[in-house]
Specification:
It contains eight helices and eleven strands. By secondary structure, the chain is of the alpha/beta class. It folds into two domains: 25-102, no CATH class; 115-265, no CATH class. Strands 1, 3, 5, 7, 8, 10 and 11 form a seven-stranded parallel β-sheet that branches. It has a four-stranded parallel β-sheet with strand order 2-4-6-9, with no helix packed on it. Helix 3 (145-157) packs across helix 6 (190-219) and helix 4 crosses helix 8 (248-265). The longest helix is centred in the C-terminal third of the chain and has 30 residues, at 190-219. The two termini are 13 Å apart.
């Protein structure tokens, strides 16, 4: 039943997104810049990983991974959303209604003159991120022990189904994002949607780590360990698996999709399917 619903929603979103972008007075680009010339009027604009220059008139504007530059003759009549970018506005430009701007975090304040310092800084940043993810996973295991256990049991009894659900839900991420971009009320919801995907992924990784640890302790004939220890051991196993040359990235994707799908189906372990 859930498979049919997911497929129907996926097709609906593709249909709506395609029709929305099919309008002649709309602009949608991925990986390139766009310019609205003076005297030109555009309805909705969506730019991903590119900059947008507005010298004409636009109704609604959404830019992800780029900057929005509004010239002296530029006008934005509706909503404006810039995620991981900046809004550069001329004094005579007009930007009305709601404006959402999420700037990228400046990680380093200095330019490194020696490559070894840059490599050291990036390595330190990676260690901080790795440690933060590990701590969050442990907190999830401590706070939601029952939910993680129920989700883990679902994966044990429905492994292929969990992977299939995760694959279907993963395919829906990009269409849902595009659908939110072309809708007026959906633009402010994009950060919320991205955060929801992030939290669901972390919960799924926690479940998979617990499952790896559970299987490991069963193999060495030491069952009934605490979930924290299972997650710690499972996290180590997970790190070893994703470091395998050539296939580590593929294993990571499979693990992510399995945990992601089971988390959504069980509603974060709320119900035992």
């Amino acid at each position: 039943m859930i498979k049919k619903i997911a497929l129907a929603v996926f097709c609906f979103i593709l249909f709506v997104s395609a029709n929305a972008f099919a309008k002649s007075n709309d602009i949608a680009k991925i990986g390139s810049d766009a310019v609205i010339e003076d005297g030109t009027t555009v309805n909705d604009v969506a730019i991903i990983f590119g900059d947008l220059v507005v010298n004409g008139v636009a109704r609604n504007v959404a830019v992800i991974g780029g900057d929005l530059k509004v010239g002296p003759t530029g006008k934005i009549l509706g909503d404006s959303a810039v995620i991981f970018g900046k809004i550069l506005k001329s004094p005579d430009a007009e930007i009305n209604n709601n404006v959402v701007e999420i700037r990228p975090v400046k990680i380093f304040s200095y330019n490194f003159e020696f490559p070894i310092l840059a490599i050291f800084a990036l390595g330190l940043l990676g260690l901080v991120i790795f440690s933060a993810v590990f701590v969050i996973i442990l907190l999830l295991a401590y706070l939601f022990t029952g939910r993680i256990g129920r989700t883990s049991f679902y994966i044990q009894t429905n492994l292929l189904r969990s992977l299939l659900y995760g694959f279907c839900f993963a395919l829906m991420i990009v269409p849902v994002t595009l659908f939110l971009l072309v809708s007026i009320i959906g633009i402010p919801l994009i950060p919320v949607f991205i955060f929801a995907v992030f939290i669901t992924s972390l919960f799924g990784y926690t479940v998979m780590c617990q499952l790896f640890g559970l299987k490991f302790f069963n193999i060495i004939n030491k069952p009934n360990q605490s979930m924290i220890w299972e997650v710690i051991v499972g996290f180590i196993i997970f790190c070893i698996l994703i470091l395998i040359p050539y296939i580590g990235w593929f294993i990571k994707i499979l693990i992510w999709m399995t945990g992601f799908g089971a988390t959504i189906v069980t509603k974060f372990g709320k119900t035992q399917q």
